[in-house]
Design goal:
By secondary structure, the chain is α+β, with helices and mostly antiparallel strands. Helix content is about 40%, strand content about 15%.
Length: about 190
């Protein structure tokens, strides 16, 4: 990943600043061959919740926004579509944690993305979910397709509240709640 990380510095000043400080970490989540989709989504969701709670704790302790945990997804099963497996957990997580200032990203192995300036971003060597503290002056602009989430992130305050205060931390309930959220506007 080191070559990819270095290539990403041009597109992500956050990553460039946090990597030498040792505040960007990588956690590997391996999907068992032929694992059921809902069980895998649930496990990814719970792995990301653990990462988000670690990020929240480290931000409060260090008073630094340069904290990030990337959850790398390894799947030996050629039938496993990581983009599809990450979709619902990513959608739910960003809505749960955006109001407390935690951002979630989604990079799919081999897919070339565009940065906020329209420049091509190197394709990720592995699929992964970045979980990081938000940079409030900049990050709401990344959520233009979800104006309510963008607005919530712009005024995010992590007062330590339980993000599951109004819904159970059980994947089926979370997915049902997330499916009720307005779909993002297409650009």
């Amino acid at each position: 990943m080191s070559g990819y990380i270095t290539a990403m510095f041009a597109h992500c000043p956050y990553l460039e600043a946090s990597t030498p400080r040792g505040t960007t970490v990588w956690t590997v989540y391996e999907i068992a061959p032929k694992a059921p989709k809902d069980a895998t989504e649930a496990e990814l969701f719970h792995a990301a919740v653990r990462a988000a709670e670690r990020v929240r704790l480290l931000v409060r302790r260090s008073r630094s926004v340069l904290v990030c945990e990337n959850i790398v997804i390894l799947a030996d099963d050629v039938d496993t579509d990581c983009a599809e497996l990450m979709a619902w957990p990513h959608w739910a997580l960003k809505h749960l944690y955006g109001p407390v200032g935690v951002m979630f990203g989604k990079f799919v192995q081999g897919v070339e993305e565009r940065d906020r300036f329209g420049q091509g971003v190197p394709p990720a060597p592995y699929s992964f979910l970045p979980v990081r503290a938000s940079v409030r002056p900049r990050d709401p602009g990344l959520l233009k397709g979800t104006p309510a989430l963008s607005a919530a992130l712009a005024v995010a305050d992590d007062n330590g509240r339980d993000v599951f205060e109004h819904i159970p931390c059980e994947w089926k309930a979370v997915r049902a709640w997330a499916s009720s959220l307005p779909a993002p506007a297409r650009r």
